[in-house]
Specification:
The termini are far apart. The protein folds into two domains: 9-46; 47-97. The protein has 111 residues and is mainly α. The protein contains six helices and no strands.
């Protein structure tokens, strides 16, 4: 096998810079912690279903950033795929009932 074509085990353990892919810098850990705190806060405010629907937007954001920052070419199927994903995230967010709708009737505040 040619050295120009890496094996699956080599690709999974070595990044483009030649460092171990599992190694994270302090900045990586800080950003991961910030993302975790923001996602947890969002889940507490809007509910877990709506908060997790936000993660579906990553594909569309990556596509847009690729076009804006790198000048990537975009196929029609990619745009349609992003539209389907965003519509699914929107429908997912609408499907969850608000806490007011879930509370049982009767018994007032302060019981």
């Amino acid at each position: 096998m040619s050295e120009a074509v890496p094996t699956a085990s080599r690709v999974s353990s070595i990044s483009a810079e030649g460092t171990h892919a599992g190694a994270l810098s302090a900045a990586d850990w800080a950003l991961l912690l910030i993302a975790f705190v923001l996602m947890t806060t969002l889940a507490a405010r809007v509910g877990p279903t709506r908060a997790s629907a936000l993660t579906y937007i990553e594909a569309a954001a990556a596509l847009g950033l690729g076009v804006l920052l790198r000048g990537d070419d975009v196929a029609v199927l990619e745009v349609l795929g992003c539209a389907v994903v965003l519509a699914g995230a929107w429908f997912t967010g609408r499907a969850e009932r608000s806490p007011e709708e879930v509370r049982p009737s009767g018994g007032g505040e302060g019981n």
